[in-house]
Write a structure and sequence with these properties.
globular, 36% helix, alpha/beta, six-stranded mixed beta sheet, four-stranded antiparallel beta sheet, 9 helices
Length: 265
């Protein structure tokens, strides 16, 4: 398997950002099958605290499955995944420990339609962290301010635009004070005019040093925010490099073909 190793840890991104040396996620020799279909093949990946990683690749390349394995929404069959020092196994207690530290934002917002925005945000802190309602509401409002929609707190998700719903979903994850945020194509279900408002929130999170893994085709976001861009194809990590190298001098023919298809000519 051709795999171009990143030199990210030695390179600061524009704006002075430099990932820490502490390892937040360590994936070693990880494989996953759906029946006879080998969807992820010998994945090795190290993510440092504060690192911003964009994962791209053609449809069906295993990108979303990879990040879903990091919080055990999908189960891997061999190899290891260690998140913040905790190895993900079939042990439900360990899975819960990891999920408390890992926020996930999906393509579709997964908000409870019968609950207000505020109630959607308060649910996990109250049930998982055993937080009093008053404290949960204070944190919820803090993060609704953070994503710039505090005025929507008493509305129901169906009363909001797609971009607003996705910002609510991001705020909901932040209410659990995660150490890592996973984004699975967070803008792909949005109308074009709503994409920027969600990306702006993600950019501001990145600027604050949040450890982030984002599956996306938003290459402008990758260029400006990522410490490392990973290209996947056919269940493999084909190439990974800082964006300036990834876009200007792709090492693999498969990467060059992909970029030729999605970048403006």
């Amino acid at each position: 398997m051709a795999q171009t190793q990143s030199q990210t840890s030695a390179n600061a991104r524009p704006g002075g950002h430099r990932p820490g040396s502490e390892v937040m996620i360590q994936i070693t020799g990880m494989n996953k099958w759906y029946g006879a279909f080998h969807v992820l093949k010998e994945i090795d990946l190290t993510v440092h605290k504060g690192e911003r990683i964009v994962i791209c690749g053609p449809s069906g390349s295993g990108k979303s499955t990879l990040i879903r394995c990091i919080n055990r929404l999908e189960e891997h069959q061999s190899g290891s995944i260690v998140v913040d020092g905790i190895e993900l196994t079939a042990d439900l207690k360990r899975i819960d420990e990891v999920r408390r530290e890992v926020g996930m934002v999906f393509q579709h917002f997964n908000l409870f339609p019968h609950l207000t925005v505020l109630d959607n945000l308060c649910l996990a802190p109250m049930w998982v962290r055993r937080m009093p309602r008053k404290d949960a509401e204070a944190i919820a409002m803090k993060y609704l301010e953070r994503v710039r929609i505090p005025e929507q707190a008493r509305k129901f998700p169906g009363q909001l635009s797609g971009g607003q719903q996705q910002r609510v979903a991001i705020a909901r994850s932040l209410c659990m004070s995660p150490k890592v945020m996973l984004f699975d194509e967070p803008t792909s279900a949005l109308d074009p005019e709503m994409v920027k408002e969600v990306l702006d929130v993600m950019i501001s999170l990145a600027e604050e040093g949040m450890t982030m893994l984002c599956v996306t085709h938003e290459m402008g976001f990758a260029r400006s925010v990522a410490d490392r861009v990973i290209f996947m194809d056919r269940g493999e990590i084909v190439e990974q490099n800082p964006p300036e190298l990834f876009f200007s001098n792709p090492q693999s023919e498969r990467t060059r073909t992909f970029l030729g298809q999605i970048l403006p000519h």
